[in-house]
């Protein structure tokens, strides 16, 4: 099922009265949907007021009940005891995204000219030459509707107590392969691509919105911006507002068919070396749907290196300032580079629909259930309490494993969860992980001991 109904701002009558009807003030307010602006639009559009749609169940109190996800790797042994085994899927280590020539942007080339920053007709307030930096390395990223699988293992349907249960539309509780979950992905993957950046070498990324396209007829479920809009924010980047995914600078976001050229100068604040960082990420930042859009997959990785202290090559002895952190760099000849043994780890927790938990939050839902979505990602917008999952994933895979060599590695840790706070500790165990159905994480280390401090 493809939700193509055009929603705008969803409020109930109580919320509208609470806001004082401010959005309706003024005889010139335009509450009708406007067409998507074409790619070659070079003039700024008029200010839009979101369409108001009255839905009797939106707003008000959310139903804050969480589903219990199927137990990944779980099964019932001959004695009727729930068992489980995971850590078989390999950890996905994304390669560096490769740049594109400016000709790839067709009739709408990137550049400092007036009206060339986005399809909204905006302009870069600063260009690389203003800071005596080289021309930017250009990348193209499309926002696509695709499917993602968190595991290749079968999963056991369980209830909140950890006992096997028969899911909707089934006649048994036998382990089964999980369906794919619909994502909105940068280039259609979760996590999205990784851009290896370097201080002093600017990057320009063209983000194109194709979220209205659904070539595989995937069910979009009921979270994420219903008008398929986005903004992209480079988290902790020193970036101008028009390239920063700033909702104050671009309150309408970018709709399907629109693009934005985000210019990342890779320039520390005040040109102060003490302001340099090592691991950023880019994610959706659209007002009112940031959490839902990020949870739906709009996550990308952005390690950033320092030519003097951290060029990404442990073997470079010619640079006396090189910290020689673990990593072997390979230049690709197009401005991009890969660094072996330098591995990003994006931690993300999720819940999968059990088909019997009600759907209602501050955006939509009337308390209905969706048995057809069993095993797919479940999300509710709980702004006062956050949303936490019971399945932990790393780089998009639940409980992955990494085969390593006998050498030093560098790991960069990113909390890509919506509300989860992590405490990372290196642990040793003689017995290994034990299944713990019905608890957050699904597996535990009963004899885990902190191995170093």
* Reported CATH architecture: Sandwich
- The helical percent reads under 10%
Task: Note the run of SSEs as H and E.
Answer: EHEEEEEEEEEEEEEHEEEEEEEEEEEE
Task: Name the average pLDDT.
Answer: 87
What would you call the quaternary organization?
Answer: single chain
**Low-confidence runs of at least 5 consecutive residues:** 1-54
Annotated CATH topology = Immunoglobulin-like
Total helical segments: 2
How large a portion of the residues is in β-strands, by DSSP E? 15-25%
Radius of gyration: 24 Å
Instruction: Specify the CATH homologous superfamily.
Output: Cupredoxins -  blue copper proteins
By secondary-structure content and strand pairing, the structural class works out as: mainly beta
How would you describe this structure to a colleague?
The chain has a single domain (1-453), classed as Immunoglobulin-like (Sandwich), CATH 2.60.40.420. It is built from two helices and 26 strands. The model is unreliable at 1-54 (pLDDT under 50). Strands 18, 19, 20, 21 and 22 form a five-stranded mixed beta sheet that branches. Strands 9-6-11-13 form a four-stranded mixed beta sheet, with no helix packed on it. It has helices spanning 13-19, 290-295; strands at residues 9-11, 52-54, 71-72, 74-76, 82-84, 137-148, 154-156, 176-177, 181-186, 197-198, 203-209, 232-235, 259-264, 279-284, 299-305, 328-331, 337-340, 342-352, 377-378, 391-394, 397-398, 410-415, 427-428, 434-435, 443-444, 449-450. By secondary structure, the protein is mainly beta.
